[in-house]
Design goal:
heterodimer; A: alpha/beta; Rossmann fold; B: mainly alpha; 0% strand; disordered C terminus; membrane (chain B); transmembrane (chain B)
C-alpha cells in the first residue's frame, strides 16, 4: 500500500529539491547585491567640493536666549566637523553674552548644567546686531552685495558647494520674524534659492529651520537639490527644551537640542546618513512633528552623509617620500604605500610613519652641501686663504 | 717682543677671562648692544650647525656672516672664547705698534714710558671693547683686522696692509671707508704732521697701483668665499647685502634700525641709498682736509663708522675711543671732552636699561630705546666733531706761542687784537 505513493513522494521530493536549489542560487545573487549595496552605500556621489554654512538667529533680546544658543550650538557643531570660519556665515543679534542680565557674562550655554560655553573666545560672528535683516540675508544668499562688503561677509559659493542653511527664531505660517521688525516669507526664501540655482551658487542645500510652524517655511521651494527639514508643522508650536535656573531663561529649543545631541555622536569620518538623522526624530520627545522635504533632492537619503552638509570636505593624498625628496637622499626609510582618496569620500586622517633622518630638501636644489663635497670646499677655501696670507707675508 | 709690564699682564688677564667660566656669559651673548645680527655668536653657531647638517646656511635669512668664517670655524678651530682673547691681544699689540710707528720709535723696543702702558690698557680695559669680546661677537675680529691694516700701513708693509684691509672689507663692507686713508699712509708716512699741515707729499701715482693690488687680494678672498659657498652667490646678498638693504631690524645702538622700522616700503630704497651714501661722503672731505696726516684721517673715519654704521654695536665707538690714545697731541685742544665722556656714560647706562624696559619687561616701548640710541649717536657725534676740531686747531697752534711770534713792527699792533681773536 505505501509503495503505491512512492512516485508522488519522489516527485514531491524532487520539487522540494528544485525549490531549494533555485532558492539557494537566488540568495547568493542577492548576497552579492547586498555586498555591493553595503559597500556602495558609502559612495555618496554628491559631487560637492566645498561646504558652507549659513546660520541665522533671527531674534534679539534677552528672552530669546535660546535662539542664540540654537545658532551657536549649530555653529560649534559645524566647526567641529570641519567647516572653517571662512566658510561659515553666522548671523546673530549677539546681545545675549554681554547682556546686563547675563549672570555669566561673556558666556552662552545650551544646557541647564552650564557645562559647555558656546560663546568662548573663538567665535566669528559675521552679521551682528542690527545687520541681521531680511535684506542682508537675501543679498547674502543671492550674492547681490554692495562692493564694499568684505569677503568675510559674503557667501562665496560656487556650483560645487553644499550649503547648510539653518534658521531659528519666531515664525508662523510661511513667515519668519526678523528681530521684531520685519518678516521674511517662504516665497522670499524660495525665490532666493532659485536665484542661487540660476547663478550656479550651490550644488545642494540642506535647509533646516527651528521655529513655530517651521515646516511651512520650506513648502514653497521649487529649485532642485534642496533637502529641507523643519521642527513643527502648520498650526503647531515648537517648544523649548529646558530652563536654566541661574540664567533664568530657556536655554535651548527641543528640536535643535535633539539634533545637537545626535550630532555629538558624529565626527569627521562618520558614515551616518541623513536618513539616520531623520529616523532619530521623535515627535513625542520634541513635542512637535518635525517635517522633511526631499522631493527636490535627487539622491537617496540613506546614501546622503551627514558630513555632506555638516562637515568640511577635505581631500588628502599621500605621496610616497621618494617623490618629494631627490634620489640622492639615501637615508629615508620605507614609506607607506600611497592611499588615494576618492574625491567625495570623507577624509580619513592618514598618519605616515616614515621617519626621515636627513631633512627634506626642495626638489631642484643641488647637492653642494653634502658631506664630502662640503669638506673639500671648506679645506680648499682655507687653503686658498692660507696661500694668500703666506705669499703676502713671505714673498712680498 | 717688548718690555712693557702692562701688556703681558693684561694679555694673561684676558686669557684668564676667556678660560674661566664666567657667570653671565650667556646673557652677554644675547645682548643687543654687544652684538648685531651681522656679528652675533649665536648666529655664527647656527650657521655652523646648518653647515654640519648639509643645509645651506644662507637660505634661512638669519645667517649674515662671511663664508670664510664658516670655513675657518669648521675646519681649523671651533669658535672657542680663547680665539677672541687672542684676537684682543693681537689688536692691542697692533695698536702699540701703530703708536711706535707714529712716534718714530723702533717697532720692537719702544720706550718704557707710561704712554705705552696707557695705550695697551685703554684697549684691553675699554668696556666698549671688552664686553663685545666676552660676548664672542665677531666685531672683535673686524677691529683687530682694522688695527692690523693700520699697523702694517704705518710700518710701510704694503702688501700686508692691503691684505689686512681686504680681509676687513670682506667681513664688513663699510670698512671700505678706511681704504683711502690707508693707501695715503702707505705712500706717505704715519708720523704726526697735524701741527704743521702741508700738501700731500706722497706719490699719488702709486695709489692706483696699490688699489689694484687691494682689488686683487679682495677678489681672491671673494673667490675663496665662493668656493666655500659652492659657487652660488646668495652669501653676497646675505652678508654684504645686509649692510646695504637692512633686512633684519633687530634693535641695536645705531641710528638706522628705528628709522627703517617706520619707513614705508616705497621710500625704503631711497633712504637706504641716502644712509649708505652718507657714510661714503665723509671719505673725500676728511682725507683732503687731513692730507698732511692720513693716519688721523683714518682715525676720524673710524669715528664716522663708529657713529653711523648700519648695524652698530658698542665695539665700533669702542675702537674710536681706544684710538684716541694714539694722538696725545690733540688732547689739549679738545673743546668738550667732558661732554663727550658724559654723553657716552649716559648712553652706556641708558641703552641696556631701556632695552630691558622695552623688551624684557614690556613697560616701555621702542621709543625709549630709540632715545637711548640717539644719545649714543650724539655721544659719537660729539667725539667725532671734537676730534676734527682738535686736529685742525692744533694746526693753528698755541695762543701764547702765536702771540710771542708776532713781535715785529706793524704786526705788533695787530697782536693784541689777534690775541683776543685766538683766545676765543
Amino acid at each position: 500500500m505505501r509503495f503505491q505513493l512512492l512516485p508522488q513522494a519522489c516527485l514531491l521530493l524532487l520539487v522540494c529539491f528544485m525549490t531549494w536549489v533555485v532558492g539557494s542560487l537566488g540568495s547568493t545573487a542577492s548576497a552579492g547585491e547586498r555586498t555591493a549595496d553595503f559597500f556602495g552605500r558609502h559612495d555618496s556621489g554628491s559631487g560637492h567640493t566645498n561646504n558652507w554654512a549659513v546660520l541665522v538667529c533671527a531674534s534679539r533680546y534677552w528672552f530669546n536666549y535660546r535662539h542664540m544658543a540654537n545658532a551657536l550650538g549649530m555653529y560649534r557643531t559645524v566647526k567641529r566637523l570641519g567647516i572653517p570660519d571662512s566658510n561659515i556665515i553666522l548671523m546673530l543679534a549677539d546681545d545675549v553674552a554681554c547682556n546686563a542680565r547675563n549672570k555669566f557674562a561673556g558666556s552662552v550655554y545650551a544646557e541647564a548644567g552650564r557645562h559647555l560655553d558656546l560663546y568662548g573666545e573663538n567665535i566669528e560672528v559675521d552679521y551682528r546686531g542690527y545687520e541681521v535683516t531680511v535684506e542682508n540675508f537675501i543679498r547674502l544668499l543671492t550674492g547681490r552685495v554692495d562692493p564694499s562688503m568684505p569677503r568675510s561677509k559674503r557667501l562665496l559659493t560656487d556650483d560645487r558647494s553644499n550649503i547648510f542653511v539653518y534658521m531659528t527664531g519666531h515664525g508662523g505660517n510661511e513667515f519668519l520674524k526678523f528681530q521684531d521688525q520685519e518678516e521674511i516669507s517662504a516665497f522670499d526664501i524660495a525665490d532666493a534659492f532659485e536665484q542661487m540655482w540660476q547663478k550656479k551658487r550651490y550644488n545642494e542645500i540642506l535647509f533646516m529651520i527651528d521655529t513655530c510652524q517651521a515646516n511651512t517655511m520650506y513648502s514653497q521651494c521649487y529649485s532642485p537639490n534642496i533637502l529641507a527639514t523643519g521642527s513643527s508643522q502648520i498650526e503647531e508650536n515648537s517648544y523649548s527644551y529646558e530652563n536654566d535656573n541661574d540664567i533664568g531663561v530657556s536655554v535651548i529649543d527641543s528640536y535643535t537640542h535633539y539634533i545637537l545631541k545626535f550630532m555629538e555622536g558624529i565626527n569627521k569620518t562618520s558614515q551616518t546618513s541623513m536618513q539616520d538623522l531623520f529616523d532619530s526624530y521623535d515627535p513625542v520627545k520634541i513635542y512637535s512633528h518635525p517635517g522633511i522635504r526631499s522631493d527636490l533632492f535627487r539622491r537617496p537619503l540613506d546614501k546622503t552623509l551627514i558630513t555632506d552638509f555638516f562637515g568640511g570636505v577635505a581631500q588628502a593624498e599621500v605621496f610616497p617620500l621618494q617623490d618629494i625628496v631627490g634620489s640622492s637622499n639615501h637615508h629615508e626609510n620605507d614609506s607607506l604605500p600611497p592611499t588615494s582618496q576618492k574625491p567625495n569620500a570623507p577624509s580619513i586622517p592618514v598618519v605616515s610613519t616614515t621617519t626621515v633622518i636627513s631633512p627634506l630638501r626642495l626638489p631642484g636644489e643641488t647637492h653642494e652641501w653634502d658631506d664630502w663635497r662640503k669638506e673639500v670646499r671648506k679645506w680648499t677655501s682655507i687653503f686658498v686663504v692660507g696661500c694668500l696670507v703666506s705669499w703676502v707675508s713671505f714673498v712680498r | 717682543m717688548d718690555t712693557q709690564p702692562a701688556f703681558p699682564v693684561l694679555v694673561c688677564l684676558r686669557l684668564l677671562l676667556a678660560v674661566l667660566p664666567l657667570p653671565g656669559q650667556d646673557l652677554l651673548k644675547h645682548d643687543h648692544q654687544l652684538s648685531s645680527p651681522l656679528t652675533s655668536y649665536l648666529r655664527l653657531n647656527e650657521g655652523l650647525w646648518l653647515l654640519e647638517n648639509n643645509i645651506n646656511p644662507y637660505t634661512g635669512g638669519a645667517f649674515h656672516h662671511s663664508p670664510l668664517l664658516l670655513s675657518l670655524f669648521s675646519t681649523i678651530v671651533p669658535p672657542l672664547p680663547i680665539i677672541w682673547a687672542v684676537s684682543d691681544a693681537v689688536g692691542a699689540w697692533a695698536l702699540l705698534r701703530i703708536w711706535r710707528a707714529r712716534q718714530g720709535l723702533s717697532p720692537q723696543k719702544g720706550t718704557r714710558s707710561n704712554a705705552e702702558n696707557l695705550i695697551v690698557s685703554v684697549y684691553f680695559l675699554n668696556p666698549y671693547l671688552l664686553l663685545p669680546s666676552l660676548a664672542l661677537s665677531t666685531s672683535t675680529f673686524e677691529n683687530t683686522l682694522t688695527l692690523l691694516a693700520l699697523m702694517f700701513a704705518s710700518e710701510g708693509k704694503v702688501s700686508s696692509a692691503l691684505l689686512a684691509i681686504a680681509f676687513t672689507v670682506h667681513l664688513t663692507p663699510s670698512s671700505i671707508l678706511l681704504l683711502l686713508p690707508i693707501l695715503m699712509v702707505l705712500v706717505s708716512s704715519p708720523v704726526s704732521y697735524l701741527a704743521s699741515p702741508r700738501p700731500f707729499h706722497g706719490n699719488l701715482k702709486r695709489i692706483p697701483i696699490l688699489f689694484g693690488e687691494f682689488t686683487l687680494y679682495w677678489l681672491v678672498l671673494v673667490g675663496a668665499a665662493c668656493i666655500m659657498a659652492g659657487g652660488s652667490w646668495d652669501w653676497v646678498r646675505a652678508s654684504w647685502g645686509a649692510s646695504l638693504a637692512l633686512p633684519d631690524l633687530t634693535p641695536n645702538p645705531g641710528l638706522w634700525w628705528y628709522f627703517f622700522t617706520e619707513m614705508f616700503d616705497h621710500f625704503r630704497p631711497f633712504f637706504l641709498m641716502v644712509f649708505s651714501v652718507h657714510l661714503v661722503i665723509y671719505i673725500l672731505p676728511i682725507c683732503i682736509k687731513f692730507q698732511h696726516d692720513p693716519l688721523y684721517a683714518a682715525f676720524l673715519l673710524v669715528g664716522v663708522l663708529g657713529t653711523f654704521k648700519a648695524y652698530l654695536t658698542l665695539a665700533d665707538p669702542g675702537l674710536f675711543l681706544s684710538m684716541i690714545s694714539l694722538f696725545p697731541e690733540v688732547h689739549g685742544y679738545l673743546r668738550h671732552p667732558i661732554v663727550t665722556t658724559l654723553l657716552h656714560l649716559h648712553a652706556a647706562l641708558l641703552l641696556p636699561l631701556q632695552h630691558v624696559l622695552w623688551v624684557s619687561e614690556g613697560r616701555g616701548n621702542a621709543n625709549f630705546y630709540y632715545a637711548a640710541s640717539l644719545v649714543m649717536g650724539m655721544a659719537g657725534g660729539a667725539g667725532l666733531v671734537d676730534a676734527c676740531w682738535a686736529g685742525m686747531r692744533i694746526a693753528v697752534g698755541d695762543a701764547t706761542v702765536w702771540a710771542e711770534e708776532k713781535v715785529d713792527g706793524e704786526k705788533g699792533k695787530g697782536k693784541a687784537i689777534w690775541w683776543e681773536v685766538v683766545q676765543q
